[in-house]
C-alpha cells in the first residue's frame, strides 16, 4: 500500500472517532484516580488529556491543580504529589514526605487510588452496553434460522466445511447466536462442529492450529451468513476494477465465465480464483442482459458490495429482535460485559501460550483506528468505545510496572508483608516498566507501518 492508495476521507473519519472515543475513556479513567486522590486529601498537581512534552495546547490552574490539553493524542494523566509515576519527578521524592502526598497515605488508600481508573473503565463499559441495549435493542439471525446456511472461504473449507452447511451444534451444544460460535472457534475453545449438509449430519473436527491460522491471515470472516447476490449496492471507488469495467449500482451479476451465480460467496470465490486474469461477467441491468469484462487485480477484490438491506434480511431470514426495558437492559449489559472480558482474556491466553505469533496480532493506534467505521455510525462508535473501555481496564490490571496493576501489586505485597518498598526500588521499577511499555508501543507502531507499505 502506498500513501496515494489511502482513502484519506475514510481515514480522517476513523481517526476522528478514535480520538473522541479514547478521549472519553482516558478522561474518565484519569478522573477515577483524581476523585479518589482528592477524596483521601492528596494534592493533584496536574490533570491532562493527551500528553504535553515541552508545551501544552491549553492549560489553566484552578486551586492546586493545573488542567490542560497536550498535543500528543495518545492518552492522558494525572500527576499526584508524592507518587512515582511516568513524570519521574525525583526532586520531590528527595524531600521529607508531606501529609498531602500519595506516599504518606495508608496502603489501603493508595490501593483504592490506583485501582480507581480500572473500576471506572469497567463501570463505563457496562453502562454503555446496557444503554445501547436499552436504546437499540438487539437483533440477530438465530443459528438454526440461517436459511441458506454458511458461507465459507478457503481456510474454513480446508477443515471440511462447505458453503451451504447449516451448523447444528458446537461441541454438542446448540448455540443460538452464530457470532458466539465463530468467536469460540477463533479462540480455540470449540473443538467440534456438527453440520447439516443436504440433510445429512457431518462432524467437523477443528484442528489445534486452526485459530493461529485464522489470526495469521486475519481471517475473522472465515464463516459467515450465506446470502443471495441480489445486486450491486455500491462501487468501492471510481478507480476500482468494477468501475473501470463499466459496472454500475443495481446491476445484477448472473454469471462469471459462464458459471451461474446465485450466492455472493459463489461470486467472491470465482473472482478470487481468477486473480490477475480477465473474467467475463453476464449482468442484468434493468431489462437488459449485458456482457462485461473485468480484470481482477492481485488482491482478488474488484470493489463492489452486495445490496443487502434490512428489508431483504427481514424477508429472507427470521430475524430475532429483543427489546429491553431499562431494568432488563442492566443484567443484559452486565452479561455482555462479562462475555467481552472473557473473550479478550482468551485472546491474551492464546498469545501467551505461544499458539499465536504476537507479531500477527499486535497493533498500534493505526490498527485500533481502522476498527471504526469509515462512515459515522453512533451504534458502532459506542459499541467499540464500550469494548475498548473494558480492554483498557483488563490491560491496566496486568501486574506490569508502569501500569496501575503494577502499582497495585506492590501495594498488595506491602499490605501482606508489612514492608513498604523503598522509593528507590519503586523508581527503578517504574523506569523498567516505562521502557518496556514504550518499547512495545514503538514495536507495534513499526509493525503497522511495515504492514501499511507491505
TrEMBL record:
Keyword Protease: yes
Start and end residues of each PDZ domain: 221-287
Gene Ontology cellular component list: membrane
Membrane-topology annotation of the record: Multi-pass membrane protein
Gene Ontology molecular function: metal ion binding; metalloendopeptidase activity
Membrane-crossing residue ranges in chain numbering: 111-136, 380-400, 428-450
Entry's EC annotation: 3.4.24.-
Cofactors named for this entry: Zn(2+)
Primary localization class, coarse: membrane
GO BP of this protein: proteolysis
Entries under CDD domains matching the protein: S2P-M50_PDZ_RseP-like
Keywords: Hydrolase, Membrane, Metal-binding, Metalloprotease, Protease, Transmembrane, Transmembrane helix, Zinc
Subcellular location: Membrane
Superkingdom of source: Bacteria
InterPro entries: PDZ, PDZ_sf, Pept_M50_Zn, Peptidase_M50
Similarity field: Belongs to the peptidase M50B family.
Cross-referenced NCBIfam families: RIP metalloprotease RseP
Protein name (Swiss-Prot/TrEMBL): Zinc metalloprotease
The organism of origin for this protein: Panacibacter ginsenosidivorans
Amino acid at each position: 500500500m502506498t500513501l496515494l492508495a489511502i482513502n484519506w476521507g475514510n481515514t480522517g473519519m476513523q481517526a476522528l472517532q478514535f480520538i473522541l472515543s479514547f478521549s472519553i475513556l482516558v478522561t474518565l479513567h484519569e478522573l477515577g484516580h483524581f476523585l479518589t486522590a482528592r477524596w483521601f486529601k492528596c494534592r493533584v498537581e496536574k490533570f491532562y488529556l493527551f500528553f504535553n512534552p515541552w508545551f501544552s495546547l491549553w492549560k489553566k490552574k484552578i486551586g492546586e491543580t493545573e488542567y490542560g490539553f497536550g498535543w500528543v493524542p495518545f492518552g492522558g494523566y494525572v500527576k499526584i504529589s508524592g507518587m512515582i509515576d511516568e513524570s519521574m519527578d525525583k526532586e520531590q521524592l528527595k524531600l521529607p514526605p508531606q501529609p498531602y502526598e500519595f506516599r504518606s497515605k495508608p496502603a489501603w488508600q493508595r490501593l483504592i487510588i490506583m485501582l480507581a481508573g480500572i473500576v471506572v473503565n469497567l463501570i463505563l463499559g457496562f453502562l454503555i452496553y446496557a444503554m445501547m441495549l436499552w436504546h437499540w435493542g438487539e437483533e440477530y439471525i438465530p443459528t438454526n434460522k440461517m436459511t441458506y446456511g454458511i458461507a465459507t472461504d478457503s481456510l474454513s473449507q480446508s477443515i471440511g466445511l462447505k458453503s451451504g452447511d447449516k451448523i447444528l451444534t458446537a461441541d454438542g451444544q446448540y448455540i443460538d447466536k452464530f457470532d458466539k460460535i465463530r468467536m469460540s472457534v477463533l479462540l480455540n475453545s470449540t473443538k467440534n462442529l456438527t453440520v447439516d449438509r443436504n440433510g445429512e449430519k457431518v462432524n467437523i473436527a477443528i484442528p489445534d492450529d486452526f485459530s493461529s491460522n485464522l489470526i495469521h491471515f486475519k481471517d475473522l470472516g472465515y464463516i459467515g451468513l450465506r446470502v443471495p447476490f441480489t445486486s450491486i449496492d455500491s462501487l468501492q471507488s471510481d478507480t476500482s476494477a468494477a468501475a473501470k469495467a463499466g459496472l454500475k449500482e443495481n446491476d445484477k451479476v448472473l454469471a462469471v465465465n459462464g458459471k451461474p451465480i446465485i450466492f455472493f460467496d459463489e461470486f467472491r470465490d470465482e473472482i478470487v480464483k481468477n486473480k490477475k486474469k480477465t473474467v467475463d461477467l453476464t449482468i442484468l441491468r434493468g431489462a437488459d442482459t449485458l456482457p462485461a469484462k473485468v480484470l481482477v487485480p492481485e488482491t482478488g477484490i474488484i470493489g463492489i458490495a452486495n445490496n443487502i438491506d434490512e428489508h431483504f434480511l427481514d424477508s429472507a431470514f427470521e430475524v430475532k429482535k429483543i427489546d429491553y426495558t431499562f431494568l432488563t437492559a442492566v443484567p443484559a449489559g452486565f452479561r455482555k460485559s462479562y462475555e467481552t472480558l472473557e473473550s479478550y482474556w482468551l485472546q491474551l491466553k492464546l498469545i501467551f501460550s505461544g499458539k499465536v505469533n504476537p507479531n500477527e496480532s499486535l497493533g498500534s493506534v493505526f490498527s485500533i483506528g481502522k476498527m471504526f467505521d469509515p462512515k459515522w455510525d453512533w451504534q458502532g462508535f459506542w459499541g467499540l468505545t464500550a469494548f475498548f473501555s473494558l480492554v483498557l481496564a483488563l490491560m491496566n490490571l496486568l501486574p506490569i510496572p508502569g501500569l496501575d496493576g503494577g502499582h497495585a501489586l506492590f501495594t498488595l505485597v506491602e499490605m501482606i508483608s508489612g514492608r513498604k518498598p523503598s522509593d528507590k526500588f519503586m523508581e527503578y521499577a517504574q523506569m523498567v516498566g516505562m521502557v518496556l511499555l514504550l518499547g512495545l508501543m514503538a514495536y507495534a507502531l513499526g509493525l503497522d507501518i511495515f504492514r501499511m507499505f507491505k
